[in-house]
Amino acid sequence: MFSIDMGSLRPAGEFGSEAWCKACADYGMQILAAADLPEDLVWGFSEIYTDPPARLLSDQRLKAGYYFMVENGEISGGDGVTEGCLALPGFHVQMSWGFLCNQSRTLYGSAGQKQRSAEEQVLREAMEAFLGHAPDLGGIANPVWPQPIIAALSVGSEEGAGLHNIAATLQMPSPEFADLPVTEMGVPVFADMDAEQKQAFVRLCGVGPAN
After folding, report:
1. Residue 81 and which of 16, 21, 52, 176 are 20 to 30 A apart at CA?
2. pLDDT tens across 49-72, in order?
3. pTM confidence score
C-alpha cells in the first residue's frame, strides 16, 4: 500500500505544465506499483487539457497532459499521453484547461468531490446562458474503474492524501484566476464576473468570445 508524507510535497508547476504533469504521472506510477493489483489487470489513466496557455507548450511539447497505466504487469507513464494508453480501458479525460484549472488546486475527499461537481455544473449552465449554446468543454469517454484501482488511488483521500490531493498539492496558482470570483472550492463563479471577465473566461476555456 502506498503511503506519503503530504507535508513533504512542494509545488512542481502550474496545472498542465510539463513539470507538474511529470510529477503527477510519477506519483500515479508509484501508487500502482505499491498496490496489490491482479496480474492480468489492464488499465490506463490519462488527462489531456485542451486550449492551455501558450506558455505551457513548446515546439517539443504540443499537448498538455499526462498518463500512467498498467499492462502485462508493467507500469508506465509520463508527460503527454500515448496512443497505447488511450487504447486501454480506463479513465481518459480530454477537457478545457481553463474550466478545470483553478479548482484542481483544492484539497478534498468524497464530499468535496461532489461539491466541486455541483459547482462546476452551475458554472456550465451559466456559461451556456451567456453564450446561447452549450459549450463544448470536453469530457470523459466510457470510464472504467476496477475496484483494485479505486482502492489504490483513493488510499488516504479522506485524510488529505490520494492521487487528487497529491496532484493538487503539486499545483502552483495560475495568473488567469488571480482576480476572478471563485467559490471556496476554487470553482469560478460566472455570475459574479463582470462583462470583461466573462468574455476573458470563455476565451480561456476555448469556447468564446461571445457576441
Report:
1. 176
2. 999 999 999 999 999 999 999 998
3. 0.94
